[in-house]
Amino acid sequence: MLEINFQHIRPYNGGLTDAFEELCCQIFHRLSDNSIQNFYLPQRSQFQRFRGAGGDGGVEALWILPNGNKWGLQSKYFEKDKLEASEFNQMKNSLETAVNNHPEITLYIYCIPFDTTGKKAEGKRGKSQTEKLNKWKEEQLKNLKSKNINLSIEFWTESKLRDYLLAVDKEGGLRRYWFDYEVMTNDWLKKRLNDAKVQAGKRYSPKLSVNVPAFDAFNY
Asked: Do residues 19 and 178 make contact, with C-beta atoms less than 8 angstroms apart?
């Protein structure tokens, strides 16, 4: 069983941020099979994916429902110990941009690659990440409501993303691609070849070659 660790995700477009964004969008896209509990996506809903270069308009991807409402997704590949003013400003800017570009949004989802810390023990100073996140969410919803904008905000943190990935990836292909570093690398192929040589023992000869139709395909 592969370990689903978003800190060790396979790089994509040269980095982990793009990799996390792409995986979140793939999970979001697979909402269409309604395999995620409490997420019923109406039939004939349309999925849109946006490229981040030059600005994504506040959303990485959208589901456009038949009634015209939209569900938007935004990934934030923050570090585990960083959920302070800078991160909240990034989230606020994304939310404001999304609402301006897509006023039909009724659900806005943030994907974060870690679970937030819980309430601190009595006597400990400061607020936990969960308390900060909830307070920030209340402030944003209040501000939006004052502008007659009503929407829901959700946070898909590490645990929830893991559950959703397991729900939509029944065959395991997504997990193998994003978290198995041994899939068909040169080192992986060499190891398999060496294992086969050991198992064959004296029966193995590099001079032995059996022509099969598959060889013709590899010649092109």
From this structure: yes
Divide the 220 residues of the chain into consecutive groups of 10 and give the mean pLDDT of each group: 87 92 95 77 92 76 96 93 92 96 96 88 72 96 96 96 92 91 60 76 68 63
**Residue type at 15 in one-letter notation:** G
Domain co-membership, 204 together with 117:
no
Radius of gyration for the alpha carbons in the chain, expressed in angstroms and rounded: 23
**Would you state the pLDDT for residue 218?**
60
Q: Are residues 191 and 174 in the same domain?
A: no
Please state, in angstroms and rounded to a whole number, the distance separating the CA atoms of residues 157 and 27: 13
Say if residue 90 is in the same domain as residue 68: yes
The residue range of the domain holding 203 is: 186-218
User: Does residue 144 share a domain with residue 43?
Assistant: yes
Domain membership of residue 136 (yes or no) is yes
Q: Which amino acid is at 179?
A: F
The answer to whether residue 1 is domain-embedded is no
Query: 66 phi and psi, to 5 degrees?
Result: -55, -30
d(CA 149, CA 101): 13
Q: Is the pTM for the entire model greater than 0.85? A: no
